[in-house]
């Protein structure tokens, strides 16, 4: 691998989307290779999207969930979680904090619900947030990303009309077999894919992602995930390591050893770097799950091609109830503490933060330009 990498051929093949080259780079667990890929990704990032880091304040506004994903701590079947939905006032207080901090964008995330009351609540929040966030600093208001799971296309249209313009829906794994192995039969890979395509038709900037280090996942599967992102024309990527949660069918009895944590962190960093190298102009998030593996996990991702961070705005009292995986960081803190911490983290990487900017994915603008619509 060292020889082929020095020659440049392996990286060139990977860049062009060779499954074999990507799998070889993903499966070679050497610290120097991980650093070399991070450096290459950093160059690609600077050339295609610039070096700014964009914020998306993350508000986990409800943990009620009708899905039963076998890996997730807030799955419907976990009776040990106390369920909450933030009322309008609590939401608006968090939104005010988001604006005060100059984050520019907000991500509204929750468990998956499809009932009319929920859809109506989300629409009303969107309209109100859009309305109250317009100012001289933000003439278009906050940029809003929604992350509330699979919905009918008609519902996606309502969300879009109400003011959301980006949507995150992870495919979790681009392998239909792996997808099936971690979800109940009621959830299908085809339905998830079709939801992603609906989002694109509706006009959203579309984000997706996978979990890295899943049981039974091969380097080829991860290579295929990157090619999946490219094939589907994805604009934004949010992915992180799989971390077992003890109160789930997949995670009970599975504890990561320190050696495994380090391996999974390096694998995640190579995955982020290669995704940047292949996709070039998308936005890539340095996700919180990386920080569960290493206190500096998110900074490492920012140095490996990521350009988005998501400071948590969820009020301190309910944070612990939004535990998707064990060891989730920042659950005993409040938004205020996160704010200071995250700006220090970004400053430590010597990158500039895009305050009061949306920081949309240039890939989306290019997609619109090619479709002949104004960007
Ligand atoms: N480990 C890592 N990520 C997880 N998610 C859910 N459960 C886990 C876990 N155990 C991720 C999923 C989901 C996102 C909101 O959180 O990818 O899409």
Description:
The chain has 375 residues and is of the alpha/beta class. The protein contains 16 helices and ten strands. Strands 1, 2, 3, 4, 5, 6, 7, 8, 9 and 10 form a ten-stranded parallel sheet that branches. Helix 10 (219-231) runs parallel beside helix 11 (258-279). The chain is globular and about 60 Å long. The protein binds 5'-deoxyadenosine. 5'-deoxyadenosine is lined by residues 71-72, 170, 172, 211, 240, 242-243, 245, 289, 324-325.
Indicate the structural class. Answer: alpha/beta
Average pLDDT over all residues: 94
Determine Rg (CA atoms, Å). 19 Å
Give the distinct bound molecules: 5'-deoxyadenosine
Overview in brief:
With about 375 residues, this protein is an alpha/beta fold.
Provide tags for this entry:
alpha/beta, globular, 375 residues, 10 strands, single chain, binds 5'-deoxyadenosine, 16 helices
Q: What's the layout of helices and strands?
A:
Elements: H1 2-7, H2 9-15, H3 19-27, H4 31-48, E1 54-55, E2 57-62, H5 88-100, E3 105-110, H6 116-133, E4 143-147, H7 153-162, E5 166-168, H8 176-181, H9 189-202, E6 205-208, E7 211-212, H10 219-231, E8 236-241, H11 258-279, E9 283-286, H12 288-293, H13 297-302, E10 308-309, H14 316-319, H15 335-348, H16 362-370
Helix pairs in contact: 2-3, 3-10, 3-11, 4-11, 6-7, 7-9, 10-11
The structure holds 5'-deoxyadenosine.
């Amino acid at each position: 691998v060292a020889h082929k990498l020095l020659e440049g051929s392996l990286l060139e093949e990977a860049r062009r989307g060779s499954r074999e080259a990507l799998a070889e780079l993903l499966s070679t667990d050497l610290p120097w290779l991980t650093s070399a890929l991070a450096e290459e990704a950093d160059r690609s990032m600077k050339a295609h999207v610039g070096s700014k880091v964009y914020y998306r304040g993350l508000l986990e506004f409800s943990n009620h969930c009708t899905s039963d994903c076998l890996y997730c701590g807030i799955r419907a079947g976990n009776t040990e979680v106390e369920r909450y939905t933030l009322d309008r006032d609590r939401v608006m207080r968090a939104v005010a904090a988001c604006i005060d901090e100059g984050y520019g964008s907000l991500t509204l995330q929750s468990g998956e619900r499809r009932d009319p009351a929920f859809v109506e609540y989300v629409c009303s929040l969107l309209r109100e947030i859009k309305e109250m966030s317009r100012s001289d600093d933000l003439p278009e208001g906050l940029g809003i990303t929604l992350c509330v799971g699979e919905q009918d296309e008609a519902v996606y249209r309502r969300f879009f009309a109400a003011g959301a313009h980006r949507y995150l829906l992870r495919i979790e794994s681009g392998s239909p077999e792996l997808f099936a192995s971690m979800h109940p039969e009621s959830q299908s890979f085809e339905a998830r894919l079709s939801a992603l395509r609906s989002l694109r038709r509706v006009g959203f900037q579309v984000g997706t992602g996978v979990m890295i280090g899943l049981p039974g996942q091969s380097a080829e599967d991860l290579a295929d995930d990157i090619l999946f992102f490219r094939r589907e024309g994805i604009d934004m990527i949010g992915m992180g390591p799989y971390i077992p949660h003890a109160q789930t069918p997949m995670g009970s009895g599975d504890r990561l050893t320190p050696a495994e944590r380090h391996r999974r962190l390096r694998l995640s960093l190579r995955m982020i770097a290669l995704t940047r190298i292949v996709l070039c102009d998308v936005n890539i998030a340095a996700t919180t799950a990386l920080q569960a593996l290493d206190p500096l996990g998110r900074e490492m991702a920012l140095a490996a091609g990521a350009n988005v961070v998501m400071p948590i705005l969820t009020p301190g009292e309910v944070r612990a109830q939004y535990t998707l995986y064990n060891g989730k960081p920042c659950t005993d803190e409040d938004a205020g503490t996160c704010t200071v911490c995250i700006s220090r983290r970004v400053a430590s990487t010597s990158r500039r933060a895009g305050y009061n900017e949306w920081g949309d994915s240039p890939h989306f603008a290019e997609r619109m330009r090619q479709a002949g619509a104004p960007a």
